[in-house]
Each structure stands twice: as structure tokens, then as C-alpha cells.
Write a structure and sequence with these properties.
This is DUF5397 family protein. By secondary structure, the protein is an alpha+beta fold. About 30% of the residues lie in helices and about 25% in strands. It is flat, with a radius of gyration of 17 Å.
Length: about 110
């Protein structure tokens, strides 16, 4: 196979691994839930993923825009994600950092 085909297969495989891990993590979260008691207790804070592949975000409120392209690999409890900068170049960025960056409002990031 060509290098491009190998890269495409690797990318699709990584996306599959990422999605499977998200499903398994969600299933574990459901297992951790308990039935409410008569005594009121505060609800636990959940750390939901608030982004989608293809979404445009900024490094800071006024920072450079980037697009979340694909998961690359799992590193502990985090993921290394491939992002595309507005100049067309690609970089790797941690999912935990992406969650902290503001999403762009509107379709055109430029």
C-alpha cells in the first residue's frame, strides 16, 4: 500500500479506538451512578467533552484559530489530537487543553 493509504488506515483506526474508549468511559460513568437517597446531596460535576471533530476553536479568546481534525493516540487519561492551523499546517495538541479553549461562534474562522 502507499504511504497515503497507510496514513488513512492509521487515522481511521485511531478514530475507532478513540470512539470505543469514549463509549467504554461513558459506560463506566453509568456504572458509578447510585440511586438517590432520601437525603439531598449535591450532584457530582461531570467533565463532558464539549467539542466535535471538525470544530474550530481558538487557543485563547483572541488567539489563533485551529480545527480539531482527529485523535492520534491515547496517553494515560488524555488523547493527543491532530489539529490544523489556519495556515494549513498540522500540529498535535492534548485533548485536555482543547477542552479549555473557546469554540468559535460562526462557520468562518477567518
Amino acid at each position: 500500500m502507499s504511504k497515503e493509504t497507510d496514513e488513512l488506515v492509521d487515522s481511521i483506526t485511531n478514530i475507532g479506538k478513540y470512539l470505543i474508549k469514549r463509549v467504554v468511559d461513558a459506560a463506566h460513568d453509568v456504572e458509578k451512578r447510585v440511586e438517590p437517597s432520601e437525603k439531598l446531596t449535591p450532584s457530582p460535576v461531570t467533565d463532558s467533552v464539549d467539542f466535535h471533530i471538525g470544530e474550530w476553536r481558538r487557543f485563547t479568546e483572541a488567539g489563533e484559530a485551529y480545527q480539531v481534525v482527529a485523535p492520534i493516540k491515547c496517553v494515560g487519561d488524555d488523547w493527543i489530537m491532530r489539529i490544523q492551523l489556519k495556515d494549513g499546517s498540522f500540529a498535535e495538541y492534548l485533548l485536555s487543553r482543547i477542552r479549555k479553549n473557546p469554540p468559535l461562534q460562526g462557520a468562518d474562522p477567518f
